[in-house]
Design brief:
MetI-like fold; globular
C-alpha cells in the first residue's frame, strides 16, 4: 500500500471516528438555539432559552450547589490525594503494594456500585442525613484516586539529585520541599485538581444516591427534566455545562503546560554551545 492512499485512508478513518464522537454533542449545541418549544424539531435560530435560564430559580440553586460541591470536593481531594501520592511515590512501607492497588478500586468500580455503597455507609453505618455534605464526601471518595494517579505520575519523573543538591547547598528539608519539590510537582497537583473539578462537576450516578433534599446539582436537575421530555431549555443548560467543563480543561491545560515549562531545568552550557 503506497504512502498516499494510506494517508488518505487514515485521514478518512480519523474523520469518521471524530464524527461518531462529536456529532451528538454538535446536535445538542445546535438545538439549544432552536426557537420552537419542541426540542427535536428545528424552526429557527433563537437565544430565548438561554435567557429563560437566567430567571429560573431552580436552575440558579442547582448551579450554586454544583459549584459548592465541585470546589469543596476538589480542595479536599487535592490535599488528601497529594499527600497520599507523596507517601506512595517516595516511601516504601508494609502494605505498599496493597495500598497502591486499592487506590485503583474507585477507578474501575462501577459508579452505581460506589453510589449504593456510599448510600448504605451514610445511612446505615454513620447515620447522617443526606445533603450537600454527603455529596461532597462522596465526590472526594472517587476524585481522590484521580488526584493520586496524576500527582504520582508527576513524582515518578522527579530527579532526586535536585533534593540532594539543595541539601548540599544548606537547605533544610522544609526549604527543599517548598522551593524545589513542590514547584516541580505543581503541574501534576494542578492537573489532578482540574481533573477532579471537572469529574465532580459532571457526576450524576453517585450524586443521585447521596443527594438529599435541597442538594440537587445541575446534572441531577437535567436528569429530572429529561424524564419529562427533551426541551430546548435542557439543551441550553447542557450546552452551558459542556462549555464550562471544556473551559476549565482548556485553562488547566494551558496553566499546566506553562508550569511544566517553568519547572524544566535550563539547558546545560554544552547544549547551548552545541
Amino acid at each position: 500500500m503506497s504512502r498516499r492512499p494510506r494517508v488518505r485512508y487514515l485521514t478518512l478513518h480519523a474523520a469518521l471516528v471524530y464524527a461518531f464522537l462529536f456529532a451528538p454533542i454538535l446536535v445538542l449545541v445546535v438545538f439549544s438555539f432552536n426557537e420552537a418549544r419542541s426540542g427535536t424539531t428545528w424552526t429557527g435560530f433563537s437565544t430565548r432559552w438561554y435567557s429563560a435560564l437566567t430567571g429560573d430559580e431552580a436552575v440558579r440553586r442547582a448551579f450554586a450547589n454544583t459549584l459548592k460541591v465541585a470546589v469543596a470536593s476538589t480542595v479536599l481531594a487535592t490535599a488528601l490525594g497529594t499527600l497520599a501520592a507523596f507517601a506512595l511515590a517516595r516511601h516504601r512501607f508494609r502494605g505498599h503494594r496493597a495500598y497502591s492497588a486499592l487506590v485503583l478500586v474507585s477507578l474501575v468500580a462501577p459508579e452505581i456500585v460506589m453510589g449504593i455503597a456510599l448510600l448504605v455507609f451514610f445511612r446505615r453505618v454513620v447515620d447522617i442525613p443526606l445533603g450537600l455534605g454527603t455529596v461532597i464526601l462522596a465526590h472526594v471518595t472517587f476524585c481522590l484516586a484521580f488526584v493520586i494517579v496524576v500527582v504520582r505520575a508527576r513524582l515518578a519523573r522527579f530527579d532526586e539529585s535536585l533534593t540532594e543538591a539543595a541539601a548540599d547547598l544548606g537547605a533544610t528539608p522544609t526549604q527543599t520541599f517548598l522551593r524545589v519539590v513542590l514547584p516541580l510537582a505543581a503541574p501534576g497537583i494542578l492537573g489532578g485538581a482540574i481533573l477532579a473539578f471537572v469529574i465532580s462537576l459532571d457526576d450524576v450516578v453517585i450524586t443521585f444516591f447521596t443527594a438529599g433534599p435541597g442538594s440537587t446539582t445541575l446534572p441531577l436537575y437535567i436528569l429530572g427534566e429529561v424524564r419529562r421530555g427533551v426541551a430546548p431549555s435542557i439543551n441550553a443548560l447542557s450546552t452551558i455545562v459542556l462549555v464550562a467543563s471544556l473551559g476549565v480543561l482548556a485553562l488547566g491545560a494551558a496553566v499546566t503546560a506553562r508550569a511544566a515549562r517553568r519547572s524544566e531545568p535550563p539547558p546545560s552550557r554544552a547544549g547551548r554551545t552545541a
